């Protein structure tokens, strides 16, 4: 089995587009449950709830995530509202804790994808898991590093894979927080057409106004879904406040998207 002919049966469990929504960070049980309840009540077709428990922050001494207690809140979100759950893992301890708490989907963040030692450690901790694992593009525009991370997972018999396009760091001031560099994602897609690709408009844009446009651009070229930061009170969010939206705005964005059927 190689990345080109991977089967990725997991993807058929979900209607397309596959939408993952929820806060950048888990902050409290009530924040998690209110966000989940309002996503449900909004009527948006969101099967998967995201929240960061361990947060990679650019500077030290800020909020670095609530840690393992957040896994209990994800569990409650699953029990009370029926969402599958997703969180970021950045080392083997995170993987062990997330698997023990039965988080349904794990992702490797953009700052981890750049580090082969980290990816290898995560891949070994995940060995043989059937759970879907997503790999965000590395912060720098390096396609080989992105592919290499997937190869490390596959060689640990992790076969339910997906990728997340979250844009690339830039020193220049642009309208994006992370420039999309669409061509890199399209090159990835052309090489590995069986690996589902999700867009992360939140981290590409870094603001609320650009989200719908970036998501639409991705769906225009056949992406399978998106992961989008959604918070019950975005202005007060403890991380990435400027890009988070309410569940009601999310529902509105989703209902205005034009979705093209893809082949996966
Ligand atoms: C996140 O999804 O909240 C996150 C930290 O993303 P990234 O790894 O893309 O910066
Ligand atoms: Mn974030």
From TrEMBL:
- Which start and end residues of the full protein are shown? 1 to 264 of 355
The entry's protein name is chorismate mutase
Q: What is its EC number?
A: 5.4.99.5
Q: What is the lineage of its organism?
A: Bacteria, Pseudomonadati, Bacteroidota, Flavobacteriia, Flavobacteriales
EC class, as a word, reads isomerase
Q: Which UniProt keywords apply?
A: Transferase
- The yes or no answer to whether the keyword Cell wall biogenesis/degradation is present is no
Highest taxon of the lineage: Bacteria
